[in-house]
Amino acid sequence: MHDRGIVTSVKSVKSVITGTGIAVGQNVVKNDALAKIMDTSDEWIRTRSGVEQRHYVNPGTGSTDLGRIAAEGALAKAGRTKEELDAVIFATMTPDHFFPGNGPVLQAKMGLRESMPTFDIRQQCSGFLYGLDLADSLIRSGKYQRLLLVGADVHTPFMPWHNNWDATIGRSDREATPEEYAENTKIRDRTVLFGDGAGAVVVEASDDDARGFLAAKLYTNGSNIEALYVPGVGFRRRPFVDRAQIDASEYIPVMEGREVFKQAVSKMPESVREVCASAGVEPSQIDLLLIHQANLRIVEGVAKQLGLPAEKVPHNIERYGNTTAGTLPILFHECLADGRIKPGMLVCFTALGSGLHWGAALYRT
Q1: 16-56 residue pLDDT tens
Q2: What is the mean pLDDT of residues 170-192?
């Protein structure tokens, strides 16, 4: 900095991830179970998405419940207590309540300091990525020293097959009625993809120049909202929810699959190249590319566009499905746990989701 003509150097503060934790729904639901209640098959789902199973929460379990478990795991891994946190960032598209957001709900459930600020962010599948950049920026600013970032979503309330719930999770042999079977089949292209899960990280200030976040590039294009959105239950409607919307399944996400695929395999590689350029590295120097787990075909398409070999692009969508804000932290946690991520590696996070929101972030472990 400059002070009366005297130039002095100040060591820059960086942010590092010191702990991770995850939580998933209690019920493992394989593709064959869904084939009992809609016109689908294990082969149909695997071929189109790569999903083999997903985890569903029990009724009454919300995204803050999974978020709390993941958060407590992250704190334990970081060797920190909840009293040492300065703030919380919660990324979700499936909050427990319409309002308030999940931040204060998690604060109460974890018994965090009553005056602790919480941030709720809504970038859907890109929520955790946006949260990483926000956490890094807040720490670099000097305002906070230690943050908890949670990405969590539960999708089972979107699912229309509640009359078939016990059969779906193996507690009943009841067959779906022809009417239920037909209704479930109408939206199979979306509902078979999703699972319930959460991931959390503790992000702390550090003066270690050898590790930490290097750069991030985030983008939004609101002109393509209808490629992936929920058409109903919004405050432009009067009333904002009614029986007609429910009967028309307007509370369930609408997705133009081909358009989302096209945008994903274009925008994510582009953002990876741009974040690498800003950090002065080449995409080929990335040790692990962690891609939002929306669809295995998208993961493979992004890797192909960047010319990265399969061993550099881990995936777990086959076991969890798409947990939206939970996919990146869950994948990061697993790669740390099984040793795929080692000290000194260059890790790149990238995601694209409803909005459209997308981007990439570079992190040195």
Answers
A1: 999 999 999 999 999 999 999 999 999 999 999 999 999 99
A2: 90
How many angstroms separate the CA atoms of 303 and 313, rounded?
Answer: 7
Last residue within a domain, chosen from 206, 237, 271: 206
Looking at residue 89, the DSSP 8-state letter turns out to be: E
Q: Are 96 and 128 in contact (CB under 8 A)?
A: no
* Secondary structure, 3-state, 160-211: CCHHHHHHHCCCCCCCCCHHHHHHHHHCHHHHCCECCEEEEEEEEEECCCCC
Q: Give the CA distances from residue 6 to residues 1, 13, 205, 340, in Å, rounded to whole numbers and listed in that order.
A: 8, 22, 27, 46
Instruction: Identify the CA nearest to 145 among candidates 220, 202, 107.
Output: 202
Q: Which residues are catalytic?
A: 125, 292, 322
CA distance to 31, 109, 190, per residue, from 28 (Å)? 10, 25, 18
Last residue of a domain, which of 206, 234, 254? 206
Same domain (yes/no): 179, 246:
no
Q: How far apart are CA 11 and CA 4, in angstroms?
A: 20
Question: pTM of the entire structure?
Answer: 0.94
Question: How buried is 271 (Cβ within 10 angstroms: 0-12 exposed, 13-18 middle, 19+ buried)?
Answer: buried
Per the structure block, which two tokens stand in for 110?
A: 């974890």
Q: Closest by alpha carbon to 92, among 78, 81, 106, 76?
A: 106
Cβ atoms of 268 and 352 within 8 Å: the answer is yes
Which pLDDT score is estimated for 240? 87
Compute the distance between CA of residue 88 and CA of residue 120 in angstroms, rounded to an integer: 9
Domain encompassing residue 271: 212-364
